[in-house]
Amino acid sequence: MRPARNVRGAVSLPGDKSISHRYAMLAALAEGKSRLENYSSGADCASTLACLRLLGVKWERIDDAHNVIEVRGNGPSLAAPEQSLDCGNSGSTIRMLSGIVAAQNFSCEMTGDKSLSRRPMERIVTPLNAMGAKITSRNGCPPLRVTGSSLRGIHYRIPVASAQVKTCLLLAGLLAEGETIIEEPLRTRDHGEVALRAFGAELDRQKNQVRIRGGQRLRAIVAGVPGDISSAAFFLCAAALFPDSQLTIPNLLMNPTRARLLDILSQLGLRISVTQLDEVQGEPVGTLQAQGNRLKGATIAGADAAALIDEIPVLAAIAPFSEEGIEVRDAKELRVKESDRVASIAANLRTMGAQVEERQDGLKIPGGQTLHGAEIESFGDHRIAMAFSIAALRAQGETLIRGSECGRISYPAFFSTLETLLER
Ligand code: S3P
To answer: No. of H helices and E strands in the chain?
Structure first.
């Protein structure tokens, strides 16, 4: 990656990863044929589709240029898979799909790659077993051996803020007998709730509590997946690095449980406006326009740390170029993502010559620093590879990102798209 002088242009993003997973899973459980347009092109969402195929769900890619898929719903009962469900690198696939598999009348194994095999699963195993499933893990990590059963509704307080766990339990609750009540410690992304409603389910939400009645039938939908705001974060942070930058992103997801990024970027100095606000299947979308400015500083802590968990790598990567630096607290979940992201960020920033203080639950990165290009590691983590390609734009000299092909996990066309926006 060579340094750049400016960022200018317009970019359309692949469909949001969180929404794509949920639409695919719900389409599988619905009655009728769903058509999903702008389905995420990332390998993670392909892992969800591959697992669904092994579970007897028929789907096909209709139009590769626009990422259109059609999914023929099976209704609530899926078929016993003849092999393990390989969830690849995808925490969303294994955690959310386990809520569906746990309610089936068969046993199966859920596996993943090396990174996924290190990620904590007791957060879904404990409540699903309390609902009547029998799931065993290897020391709390994949592979999971799932013996499905008829589940009973549960009233459960989720100990860690996790939308994957919430959605897992909503899916299990949908297929269970009776009512399921889930309380979360703080409000996480609500795509599970929004998507369930789009497919015709009724849910009741009050503050941080959501209730779902089991046995509801879903009906197929036709939907376009809004552009992924977590992928947009890389281009927006690139724009934030250059005072003369100009960036337009149409059809971008504007769900308030995800849009905290826009507040932080505004606080950092980026000038943002949103037009053509619309709603698609309950999800707000809009056209975003961003213009560069000074890059000030920010602190990300408390509920913001959870709301920005996927965007912290790139915010941290641009922090040395800000005036006042960026401090991240209360983000120990970063350590159990696709890599230990606190350690990955700190290691790469240091390799590029930055000063950074690594803490158990975050990082403190002073501003006003000069970085030099270097050979850095992706640690097999898509968001780390993409984040440091953005830092490289303002570094002195070239940067080599080892293992950058992991970008395909969420955004296969990321590096080529970024090039189209750069002025050198
Ligand atoms: C996601 C929730 C978050 C996020 C992940 C996607 C989702 O994970 O980091 O990329 O789609 O629900 P947690 O639920 O572990 O916080």
So the answer is: 13, 23
β-bridge partners, 33? 72
Query: What homologous superfamily does CATH list for 6-14+227-423?
Result: Enolpyruvate transferase domain (3.65.10.10)
Rounded CA separation 143/369 (Å): 43
Strand partners, 205: 210
The pLDDT tens digits for 42-75 are: 999 999 999 999 999 999 999 999 999 999 999 9
Q: Indicate left, alpha or beta for 132 from its phi (over 0: left) and psi (-120 to 50: alpha).
A: left
In the chain, where the domains are located: 6-14+227-423, 17-224
Section 319-342 average pLDDT:
98
What is 17-224's CATH number, 3.40.50.150, 2.40.10.10, 3.65.10.10, 3.40.190.10? 3.65.10.10
48 Cβ inside 6 Å of ligand 1? no
Cα(92) to centroid of ligand 1, in Å?
Answer: 7
Q: How far is the CA of 56 from the centre of ligand 1 (A)?
A: 26
Residue nearest to atom 6 of ligand 1 (CA): 18
Pocket of ligand 1 contains residue 22 by CB under 6 Å: no
- Pick the catalytic residue from 310, 330, 361, 381: 310
Note the pLDDT of residue 20: 99
- Distance from Cα 165 to the centre of ligand 1, integer Å: 9
Residue nearest to atom 9 of ligand 1 (CA): 310
Which residue reads 């569906």 in tokens?
100
Q: What is the pLDDT of residues 100-130, one digit of tens each?
A: 999 999 999 999 999 999 999 999 999 999 9
Amino acid (one-letter) located at 420: T
Q: In which band, very low, low, confident or very high, does the pLDDT at 95 lie, cut at 50, 70 and 90?
A: very high
Strand order in the sheet with 33-37: 58-63, 68-72, 33-37, 222-224
Mutate to test the pocket of ligand 1, among 26, 164, 190 (most ligand atoms within 8 A of CB): 164
Do the domains at 6-14+227-423 and 17-224 have one common CATH topology? Answer: yes
| CA nearest to 184, candidates 202, 200, 168 | 168
- Its pTM stands at 0.98
Centre of ligand 1 to C-alpha 17, Å, is 10
Any atom of ligand 1 within 6 Å of the Cβ of 164:
yes
Atom of ligand 1 minimally distant from the CA of 162: 14
Is 310 among the residues known to form the active site? yes
